[in-house]
Amino acid sequence: MEAVGQEITKEIAGSKSTLRNVKVSYGCGRYPSHARVARVYRNIIRSQCNVVKEIDLADIVVLHFEPHTFASLFETYPVLRKKYVVGYCVWEASELPISYREAIRQVQEIWTCSQYCLEIFARHHPRVIYVPHVVERDTSYSEADGEYIGRAISYDPGNFYFFMVTKLWDLRKNTTALMTAFRNQRSTMPKARLIIKAGPQDDAGALVTDGIIVLRENLNETQVNALYATADAYVSPHHSEGWGLTLSDAMLFQKPTIATGYSGNREFMNADNSLLLDFAEDHIKPEDCFYLFDSSMKWAYPSLDDLQQKMLLLYQERGAPEILRRIRNASNDIQKFNRNSVNAILEKRIMEIVNSDRFSQAVARDWRT
To answer: What is the mean pLDDT of residues 135-162?
Structure first.
């Protein structure tokens, strides 16, 4: 038994030594959530491999960009056709747009963060790998940050604050439904307030009514932390999420969370740690089509009545044992998405790539042969 243990130890050591010689270039777009996620993945890979900036020097290249940009990247960097290229991708509807289907043919494999996304991409690519997000965040903030947020929302400790981070132009977030639900329940929740953290360019217009606070200013990370900490509950009646970073963040801040029981957030949300909204899956309605989302695709339409009832439940029962139990469960459940667990997934996958024929051949698109 001791000899077997020594052999296993040697094999693990040999694997780590092999990975140290592998050069990985990890590029990503400027979209804030992409950059945040990519930074964590890049740091994990750096602990295993030699991360390089230069694509020319890399053995493996990770493209953490929207897939429809892949063609221009391959044109700008022709050397990509001589590399093993991984596309890190997510999508938030039942079917990929045509531009995505064509783009992902150029990469050897896809990494994606949820089983929901995996099933969508796997219909159009033979090699899709599940690599979940790392659920971690520095939750600290200063007294000055707390005071700034307090002034911004005219904080009153006697009020109950619902909270959502969104972009008003992003119809997928279904912000209008949240505002409608809040207005409909206004008479039964007189001390409730709804905070919408929107983008600087968003125009809330007529959406803002009594009790709804729209924050459009740019907040730094610690100010956002103060906002999470100040709020009493997080709400997301989304149509679809690839993952839902703001939802996993809310769970880190130990906030009771209401969300549509559909799509990538089900990776870490369930009936025992959240308040999941009933929904009907349906084709995207014409008035909800935007960007690459069209009526050939499906996503969820959460129940407005259920949203209103769950918001009222949190308002009335904020300290109830059942709500506190869900918060404790959430804190425990998201621990499985810690850095060590994701590190193990990436280490295993990179080693499989290195040992594959496709890697040794270093010929792009060979997955089709």
So the answer is: 97
